[in-house]
Amino acid sequence: MADEQQQTETEIAKVRKVGVLSLAGTFALITFFFNIILGGIIYLVFPVVTGLLPFSIPFVLSFNYIILFVIGTSVLTFFYFLIFGMFYNLSSLITKGVKLYSD
Fold first, then answer.
1. Does 5 fall in a domain?
2. 102 vs 87: CA distance, rounded Å
3. How far is CA 53 from the centre of its chain?
4. Which of 11, 24, 52, 63 could crosslink 102 through cysteines, CB 3.0-4.6 Å?
């Protein structure tokens, strides 16, 4: 009986405000690590793909471009989620937040 009661109870939490800097920092860090992996794949695959083309391309991929890609996308993600967090906090004043359900 107690086991059945535990299964039917659902906790509800309302998120009315998010920490803008922690939201932006978290997603920027996730983007950074993901793009390190993606940058490595691009760095390994790009010479193979360009070698298969019947024409030459005027762009040469260097390690510097990969570093700029990883850092640039992380910085852009940080600023994007700063703006997103501010808009979420403003809109949650109108909508009274988001309900999160947990079993």
1. no
2. 25
3. 33
4. 11
Q: How far apart are CA 73 and CA 75, in angstroms?
A: 5
Q: Is residue 6 part of a domain?
A: no
Output the CA torsion sign for 52, 58, 64, 66.
Answer: negative
User: For the chain, how many structural domains are there in total?
Assistant: 1
Intra-chain end-to-end CA distance of the chain, in Å: 17
- Assigned domain for 75 exists: yes
Report the alpha-carbon distance of residue 28 to residue 76 in Å, rounded: 8
Q: Tell me the residue range of the domain where 40 lies.
A: 19-102
For 34-91, write each residue's pLDDT tens digit.
Answer: 999 999 999 999 888 888 888 888 777 888 999 999 999 999 999 999 999 999 999 9
